[in-house]
Amino acid sequence: MEKKSADIFAELRSDAPLVLVGAGKMGGAMLSGWLKRGLNPKAVRVIDPSPPEDSAALLARSGVSASAEPTGGLEARVLVTAVKPQVMDAVLPTLRHLVGRRTVILSIAAGTPIARLEAGLGAAAIVRAMPNTPGQIGRGVTVAVANAHLDSEGRALVTALLEALGKVAWVDRESLLDAVTAVSGSGPAYVFLLTEYLAEAGEACGLPSDLAALLARETVAGAGELLNQSDAPPAVLRQNVTSPGGTTAAALHVLMADDGLKRLLERAVEAARKRSEELGG
Questions:
Q1: Buried b / exposed e along 213-223 (16+ C-beta atoms within 10 A)
Q2: Order of strands, edge to edge, in the sheet holding 65-67?
Q3: Can you tell me whether residue 14 is helix, strand or coil?
Q4: Angle 152-162/2-9 helices, nearest 10 degrees?
Q5: Burial zone of 247 (CB within 10 Å; 0-12 exposed, 13-18 middle, 19+ buried)
Q6: Residues contacting 217, CB < 8 A, separation 6+
Q7: What pLDDT does residue 270 have?
Q8: All domains in the chain, ordered by first residue
Q9: Are 27 and 84 in contact (CB under 8 A)?
Q10: pLDDT tens string 233-273
Q11: Rounded distance, CA 187 to CA 12, Å?
Q12: CA-based angle 215:216:220, to the nearest 5?
């Protein structure tokens, strides 16, 4: 995969670079992944007035060119917008001069629809993607959707770039990104909350707080890794640790009740989906 990525990245050059706008946590994670996969540092330009400490150190270490504002006389092969959605409308007009005939625009800003990107940047090939925070360690999943201007070459390039964060999937309808946001975009927070509550439940049963926190954290992390390494569906893995009439079965009787975890998650995901829809409206 890395050789394939390096081959695809070869079309990124100093005179047709990848321009990364925003080197925050996700932008910095992408940049780190691209460099590890063979992207030439001279083929990257970063625009960020105040990159966080980790990203600033990466820029200095790798020799990637960085500036606080977009510079003229440059046409990006790929323009990646990784800024907060709240500032997108102010940022887009400053980037329009970077967009040329072959430029592919990749946005990872939540709640910023393709139509808004087209209004700010013109009729270019645009991809809107929804990564999630495990992408910071290369274990994320990203779902992408493109407008009609993206060709197969551009799609292959964007796929290679997003694979720096983990798995990549494409959808044909932009409206699906609201549900994607609710499941995978917000999903890590649900898992972290489960870990918090599992620790609190253990403490309520009499465990010392530090031991309850350790057990909850390692159980969730270990179960996630077991799921990652197994080909079995989650339901089978659940059944494998559930003895009839045992302790796990007693707990699952509560969690799988009609008003239990399934219904709660359905309500939570729907609330997140509706909010994503509102933010993009």
A1: beebeeebeee
A2: 65-67, 44-47, 18-21, 76-81, 99-107, 125-130, 140-146, 166-170
A3: coil
A4: 130
A5: exposed
A6: 195, 199
A7: 98
A8: 2-185 (3.40.50.720), 187-279 (1.10.3730.10)
A9: no
A10: 999 999 999 999 999 999 999 999 999 999 999 999 999 99
A11: 33
A12: 115
Of 217, 139, 137, give the one whose Cα is nearest residue 184.
Answer: 139
Q: Which regions of the chain does DSSP assign to beta strands (E)?
A: 18-21, 44-47, 65-67, 76-81, 99-107, 125-130, 140-146, 166-170
Answer whether residue 3 shows pLDDT above 70.
no
Please classify residue 167 by burial: count the beta carbons closer than 10 Å to its beta carbon, then call 0-12 exposed, 13-18 middle and 19+ buried.
Answer: middle
Quick one: tokens of 278? Answer: 């509102």
Out of 10-14, 120-124, 210-214, the most confident range is 210-214
Distance between CA atoms of residues 102 and 133, nearest Å: 30
- Take residue 194 and report the two structure tokens written for it: 């489960």
CA distance 64 to 61: 8
Amino acid at the residue 203: E
pLDDT of residue 219: 98
Tokens of 109: 């800003």
Distance from C-alpha of 18 to C-alpha of 45, rounded to nearest angstrom:
6
By the 8 A CB rule, do 21 and 91 touch? yes
What's the CA angle centered on 127, arms 123 and 128, to 5 degrees?
A: 120
The amino acid at 262: K
Determine the residue type at 70.
P
**Ramachandran area for residue 40 (φ above 0: left; ψ -120 to 50: alpha; else beta):** beta
CA–CA separation, 200 vs 183, rounded Å? 24
pLDDT > 70 fraction of the chain, expressed in percent and rounded: 98
**pTM for the model:** 0.90
The chain-wide mean pLDDT, for the chain, equals 93
